[in-house]
Design brief:
Distance between the termini: 26 Å
Number of helices: 6
Shape: globular
Structural class: alpha/beta
Radius of gyration: 20 Å
Strand order of the largest sheet: 1-6-7-8-9-10-11
């Protein structure tokens, strides 16, 4: 059935429930682009916001769906004051994961307090500067750019390892598979060779030992 013509005849409460059922978790790309690409300061002093993630479909459907408050305007705190780029990004922060890639987390500090799920891309040695302002994190996804073997150093996972150990996930940069940080640590403790040989080399034992799942990026 392509169309449901009597939809507007349904009770308002039921229509609202139907709109709510359309909401699904997303991975939302949020980029901060330097206004001056030649700026030598790191991070650059002035940026504008950009996202490649489409606006959620319900918001493009009708006024009633937009008024259902399924999504909120997020990241307004880091929008360019002069109006360059996007001034907000539609988000459902209860279920959406914010993806900032390899960008420095401190660029997002003003909006970081609202983020519950964060995806970043990091080499191990540049992770230690913490994630300033991301105090509400419930889940952290790390694309292990240099190979996940580098992350076998429990004490240096620092604050996030102490607070949400079961909700830190590492994503293999080669094939997108994902493993929980606590499980990865257990694997490495069982087989020390996993922690000394890069998974990006022709050494398959490390990956065979791991309980990977497929990371679903929407």
């Amino acid at each position: 059935m392509a169309e449901f013509h009597p939809f507007l005849r349904l009770p308002f409460e039921l229509r609202t429930q139907i709109w709510e059922e359309t909401v699904e978790p997303r991975v939302v790309d949020v980029q901060m682009i330097p206004v001056d690409p030649l700026a030598k300061l790191n991070p650059p002093p002035v940026c504008y916001m950009k996202s490649s993630t489409p606006v959620p479909a319900p918001l493009q459907t009708c006024r009633e769906a937009r008024n259902a408050q399924l999504y909120q305007k997020g990241f307004t705190e880091v929008a360019h004051p002069g109006g360059l780029g996007q001034q907000y990004i539609w988000l459902n922060l209860d279920i959406d994961t914010i993806s900032i890639g390899p960008a420095q987390a401190k660029i997002y500090r003003q909006a970081a307090h609202s983020v519950q799920r964060l995806k970043i891309e990091r080499h191990y040695l540049v992770f230690g500067f913490v994630l300033p302002g991301f105090d509400s994190l419930k889940e952290l996804y790390i694309v292990a750019a240099g190979g996940m073997w580098q992350w076998y150093r429990e004490p240096q996972w620092g604050y996030w390892w102490a607070h949400i150990p079961e909700n830190i996930w590492f994503i293999d940069p080669d094939d997108g598979r994902m493993i929980n940080a606590a499980e990865m640590l257990r694997v490495f403790k069982r087989d020390e060779s996993c922690s000394t040989v890069s998974q990006r080399d022709r050494y398959e034992n490390a990956k065979k030992l791991m309980s990977f799942t497929i990371y679903q990026a929407n």
